[in-house]
Design goal:
4 strands; 56% helix
């Protein structure tokens, strides 16, 4: 499941960015989809989430950070039990999104293609893409899964089969 979900995210992200790059020209011109609340606006983000930019070296810095994050996520995946499909799903979403944006960042000096523009009037959320959706949903799901794991019974409680203290 991990590989198919991750690959599907990368493919969906690539296709939607390609369509946006071909159909939403010229860039930076909003096109209403659901009134002005949901718009498609082609933008190029040379930095990271929310327009974070570190100058001329942003592309290299964020690429290295993405590779490091993918290495950590891979370690989390390797420690995931086969029956823990929710954790695997969360990791696949985050990894697929990270790979999608990394490929985009390496492919073009202009930056990552973003095109989904949501807001009301002048109050807009930063423009994003399919990879960003996958990373966000996967990160929230992963946080919930890890929280659930951390809140679960301790090893000794699990061995005894109930939540009573060992010193009764």
């Amino acid at each position: 499941m991990f590989w198919s979900i991750g690959a599907s995210v990368v493919a969906a992200d690539f296709v939607t960015k390609w369509v946006a790059s071909e159909r939403l020209l010229p860039p930076y011109l909003p096109r209403d989809v659901l009134g002005s609340t949901v718009r498609f606006t082609l933008v190029y983000n040379p930095g990271a989430a929310f327009g974070l930019h570190l100058g001329a070296q942003s592309r290299i810095i964020f690429s290295v950070l993405a590779v490091g994050a993918l290495a950590l996520l891979w370690q989390l995946f390797r420690s995931t039990r086969a029956e823990d499909w929710l954790r695997a799903l969360a990791l696949a979403l985050v990894c697929g999104g990270a790979v999608g944006n990394l490929v985009d960042r390496l492919r073009s000096a202009r930056g990552v293609v973003d095109f989904i523009d949501i807001g009301i009037g002048a109050s807009r959320w930063p423009t994003f893409n399919v990879a960003d959706i996958a990373v966000t949903c996967g990160a929230v799901l992963l946080a919930l899964v890890l929280w659930r794991e951390d809140a679960g019974p301790t090893s000794a409680e699990h061995i005894r089969g109930h939540d009573t203290p060992l010193h009764d």
